[in-house]
Design a protein that fits this description.
Number of helices of chain A: 14
Structural class of chain B: alpha/beta
Number of strands of chain B: 9
Strand content of chain B: 5-15%
Distance between the termini of chain A: 23 Å
Largest sheet of chain B: 5 strands, parallel
Largest interface: A-B, 21 and 24 residues
Helix content of chain A: 25-40%
Strand order of the largest sheet of chain B: 7-6-5-8-9
Shape of chain B: globular
Shape of chain A: globular
Number of helices of chain B: 12
Oligomer: heterodimer
């Protein structure tokens, strides 16, 4: 890591959007000493490196919660300056030393805020040392790729995590109902002969976890909510004051289960893609604010792990490179406006995980993304920085990151 | 002997089978299915005549071609049927079984496919336990691939042989009431038969305990029944499916005896079907579990052995048709502007 502060940077003439300070106007952003040193109309100081941002959007660097792989180049090319990392690593982050190691993974170009494994080995049976994990840098704890099947373990986890002020990130699929399933029950799974679980497995998990969070006063984050029934359970809990938030990835907002037709394993995700009715309900959940966090779910798999018969292929997709462009699709479709999208990508996840990030307020870390919200391009997995398995491969989209700045240093520029 | 094609589209000059592979019934047009059935008739006759006259049941049109039967899942009758079909057409037939395969040694499916392809086969017949595995292999090899069963997905030659059996016994498929009964959830035979028979105009019923009925099965063109007596009412054809032992004893149904009591094909239950009902089973049968042994043995009503016989004929037809393009058969070598899929 370089110790000397980089040369000051002035981003001039862009549309500056900072939901934390309510700014959305053409302005200059001045970065100095790795911090935001000013936003306004003043001429940049003479020593600054002046970058013309006219016609572009200048926003806080994206805080991506939650990802399974912290791949710096992939993240930076997608405008992501910080990731909240799931504990599903090899080995799982169930030891304080592993958490501390994960926290240093991406520096300086990408900051990684790890979530500690909620249970030893992520097996859902015994509590892991989450207090020590917090001291080692964990910003929360997570159940991993699956829910904790045993309600008693989940109850104790929430009670214990609350005492340490740690958010619990849970996977919204009933473990028993979804055991062995690789698709959502319905016509597509039946035609393909795939083992499937009913979509309401999500609502069961959300209802249970929310009730347990209510009983314990814990902070709960459902990593992905993707069904109409799941959203109903979520809204009911939020309405009665349960401290629960929810996230979603673009895949579940723009694709339905027809995408797995022809056994396309790139569309094998967890939770699996849902039917069209649930997809539309999930969009509505974003529109009405029930879902406040948009994340990439970045979980690329190697060709060897994906080029398998559907049920044997690993679930997961590369998401970092396409998160912003697909998110902008929500703005183009009129689901939310641009400041809301920026909040879902920056401020909301930063607040949920207690991070000093996601804002351009004075003295905040100089983490910035500069993007063209209209530049058209075609998503091509081959051109990605990391493994390129994406169910959006070949799809035209719009919105390109022009520059990513982390701690005052330009880490990506095209 | 030249027959009139059994589908008007064929008479109108539609290309009868513009496909590189036979991966399932789903991609096929109704007349393409009718064409395969028409083609199979000659082989049914050759096999029968050969047996009756103790003469050669042989045709050399696949001479010099290599057929690999790659079975990644145990099979006796289907493997044997494909082997006999290939040999009767003169192909050099090689079998690769699970025990002899590198799959057991951790080789990936695509590596296995690449290896098979390097042997320069002219047609590969594949059975695999995972839905979609056969399609995946077909994308990696340079020769026609024939699906002999992939997971719960499809088993197209079984549906074709069932259709041929029905057509020969009943003279038609359209308008018949066909009840397919048993473990539909895990059955590729059921899926292929639903698509084929409904596509040929039959009224198809899916009869199963609720735990063995897949979601939205009606989307495949069938009517679902959980009451066997209602499902069998006036049926012209009753097709029983095998219930695997590991799915009994509490997992999907409480016990064998309870299953037989409510979903087994008994004389009394069969009385609800049409008087000239045809009973079918893809085999191997669990006598006393899904079917009463006496019904299976009643040659007036049971088509079980004829199904096996038609299996060879249908597979001969499929092997012949799929290799026509590479054999340069007139009208096949040139795609004629058609999109081959």
């Amino acid at each position: 890591m370089t110790s000397a502060a980089p040369r000051p940077v002035a981003l001039v003439g862009g549309r500056v959007i900072c939901p934390a300070s309510g700014i959305d106007r053409i302005a200059n952003v001045y970065l100095d000493d790795r911090k935001v040193a000013g936003i306004g109309d003043a001429e940049p100081p003479s020593q600054a490196q002046v970058i013309d941002a006219s016609g572009l959007v200048v926003a806080p660097g994206i805080v991506d919660a939650c990802v399974f792989r912290a791949h710096a180049a992939a993240a930076q090319s997608g405008g992501i300056t910080r990731v909240v990392l799931m504990p599903d690593q090899s080995p799982p982050l169930d030891e304080p030393a592993l958490v501390a190691y994960a926290e240093r993974l991406g520096k300086p170009g990408l900051w990684v805020n790890p979530l500690a494994a909620a249970t030893r080995g992520l097996e859902g049976r015994e509590l892991a040392e989450i207090g020590l994990a917090r001291e080692a840098g964990a910003v929360g704890v997570a159940t991993g790729r699956a829910a904790i099947g045993d309600a008693r373990v989940m109850h104790r986890l929430l009670a214990y995590a609350r005492a340490f002020g740690l958010v619990v990130v849970s996977h919204a699929e009933d473990a028993a109902l979804t055991a062995g399933a690789v698709a959502t029950e319905g016509e597509t799974a039946t035609r393909l002969g795939l083992a499937a679980a009913p979509a309401f497995a999500e609502a069961l998990a959300i209802a249970r976890d929310c009730r347990l969070a209510e009983a314990t006063g814990a902070a709960l984050h459902m990593r992905q909510v993707t069904t109409a029934e799941g959203l109903a359970a979520l809204r009911a809990a939020q309405a009665r004051g349960v401290n629960v938030t929810a996230g979603v990835t673009p895949a579940h907002l723009f694709l339905n289960d027809l995408s797995v037709s022809g056994f396309r394993s790139f569309a094998r995700l967890s939770p699996p893609l849902r039917d069209e009715r649930d997809r539309l309900a999930t969009l509505e959940g974003v529109r009405d604010g029930s879902i406040a966090i948009l994340c990439s779910g970045h979980d690329p798999q190697s060709q060897d792990d994906k080029r398998q018969p559907f049920a044997e292929a690993r679930a997961g997709m590369a998401g970092a490179e396409t998160l912003l462009a697909l998110g902008l699709g929500l703005v183009r479709d009129g689901v939310i406006d641009l400041p809301r999208l920026i909040a879902m990508l920056t401020l909301n996840p930063a607040r949920r995980f207690g991070l000093v990030a996601g804002t351009l307020q004075l003295a905040a870390p100089a983490d910035v993304v500069v993007f063209d919200d209209a530049a058209p391009w075609r998503i091509e997995g081959r051109a990605f920085q990391g493994p390129g398995n994406t169910p959006f491969d070949g799809m035209p989209t719009a919105g390109r990151v022009r520059m990513t700045i982390k701690g005052g240093e330009v880490v990506w520029r095209v | 002997m030249v027959r009139a094609p059994s589908h008007p589209a064929l008479a109108d000059g539609a290309h009868p089978f513009p496909h590189d592979h036979l991966l399932g019934i789903a991609p096929l047009k109704p007349w393409e299915i009718a064409f395969l059935l028409d083609e199979a008739e000659q082989w049914a006759e050759l096999n029968r005549a050969g047996a009756a006259q103790r003469s050669a049941k042989h045709d050399g049109r696949l001479a010099g071609l290599t057929q690999i039967n790659a079975f990644f899942e145990n099979s006796t009758r289907t493997l044997l049927s494909f082997e006999i079909a290939g040999k009767r057409l003169g192909a050099d037939v090689v079998n690769l079984g699970v025990s002899g395969s590198s799959v057991k040694k951790g080789e990936t499916l695509l590596d296995t496919a690449t290896t098979l392809n390097a042997m320069r086969p002219d047609v590969i017949v594949i059975r695999h336990g995972a839905s979609g595995a056969v399609q995946l292999i077909s994308e990696k090899v340079d020769c026609p691939v024939l699906n002999a069963g992939d997971g719960r997905h499809e088993h197209p030659t079984q549906a074709l042989l069932d259709a041929l059996t029905i057509r020969r016994r009943k003279g038609r498929i359209a308008g018949l009431k066909v009840a397919i009964c048993g473990d539909i959830l895990h059955s590729r035979v059921a899926r292929s038969n639903f698509l084929l028979l409904a596509g040929q105009g039959a009224e198809v019923r899916a009869v199963a305990p609720p735990t063995l009925l897949p979601a939205d099965v009606e989307a495949l063109g069938v009517t679902a029944f959980t009451d066997m007596d209602a499902g069998l009412k006036d049926a012209d054809v009753v097709m029983m499916l095998r219930l695997q032992t590991e799915r009994m004893e509490g997992a999907y149904v409480p016990s064998t005896r309870e299953y037989f009591r409510f979903y087994g094909l008994t004389e009394a239950r069969l009385g609800r079907a049409a008087g000239d009902v045809l009973v079918m089973h893809p085999g191997p049968m669990n006598r006393g579990v899904e079917i009463d042994g006496a019904i299976a043995d009643d040659i007036a009503r049971s088509a079980v052995t004829e199904q096996v016989e038609m299996g060879v004929a249908v597979r001969m037809a499929c092997l012949d048709v799929l290799t026509r393009r590479r054999r340069g058969v007139a009208g096949w070598a040139d795609a004629g502007g058609l999109q081959w899929v």
